Amino acid sequence: MQCAMRQGMELLRSGSTEYKWDLNLSDIATIWRGGSIIRAKFLNRIVQAYRRDPALHNLLLDRYFTRAIKKAQPKWRLVLSSAIKHGVAAPAFSASLKNSRKIDPAENAAAASRRGIAVAAVLWRLALRTAKRLQH
Fold first, then answer.
1. Is 124 in a helix, a strand, or coil?
2. Percent of the chain predicted with pLDDT > 90
3. What is the pTM of this model?
């Protein structure tokens, strides 16, 4: 969820810069919190991150999200490797893990999306090959 929110906020930030919309990402997260089923602490953390740094270009660079992602990664990798080992396709999970690393500020959201799609495609092919082997 954190990676998906990071990507969404990055798209809003990029659009705001390109089209000179002057969006306030903290306000947007506050509005979403009011009408969302995930409104509780998670969206509050996003609001806090953009209040600490309104120019934050990558949500995962906020101290709270950096710590949370680092803490989750070992188990995240274990679950993903187990899925692959058992032939379970998990392309979105894998792409999200790939995108959870800190992205270079010069890198745009489109490049991040292309990487995620490429990783997902490779894992999908691997999952299909594994499934075929298990059928024989």
1. helix
2. 7
3. 0.53
